[in-house]
Design goal:
Elements lengths: L2 H32 L9 E2 L2 H18 L10 E4 L3 E4 L2 E2 L1 H9 L1 H37 L2
Antiparallel strand pairs: 1-4, 2-3
């Protein structure tokens, strides 16, 4: 068994999950901004800490047992075929801010979007570097 290939595949899978998660989160956060003036709107978010914990456990499992194990949690499910299903949750802190101070609420949503974009950019760059390394290794 080629351990380097297994590690590479696992890294690719984790980075692709990060890209998928950040794309889904971007859509939810954008909706939070677009719908700011709707009367009964309840802002949502994805379980970012839960996702980070899930990815950390997956990397730990790989390092310890040479396998990648993606574990579901209440709001994140891993489906056959490499797909991931996320369930948005009501963001109670954002909901309170929206009711009391729309300006601060919007700043918070923009900050979350910025953080999410940074996470996505890091994952994209790591994937590009990984692909370049694989391409160089194939040329030898």
């Amino acid at each position: 068994m080629n351990i380097t290939a297994t590690l590479t595949d696992n890294i690719t899978e984790i980075l692709n999950k990060v890209l998928d998660f950040t794309k889904q989160r971007h859509n939810i956060l954008t909706d939070n901004i677009v719908n700011v003036n709707l009367d009964d709107f309840k802002p949502k978010d994805l379980d970012s800490p839960g996702f980070a914990d899930t990815m950390s456990l997956a990397v730990y499992e790989h390092a310890r047992n040479d396998r990648l194990l993606l574990r579901d949690n209440e709001n994140i499910k891993f489906i056959a075929g490499g797909f991931m299903e996320t369930t948005p949750v009501i963001d109670e802190n954002a909901e309170s801010l929206l009711k009391n101070n729309k300006e601060i609420y919007l700043k918070m949503q923009i900050n979350k979007l910025s953080e999410n974009l940074l996470n996505r950019k890091v994952a994209e760059q790591l994937l590009k570097q990984k692909q370049a390394k694989n391409s160089m290794a194939l040329n030898f």
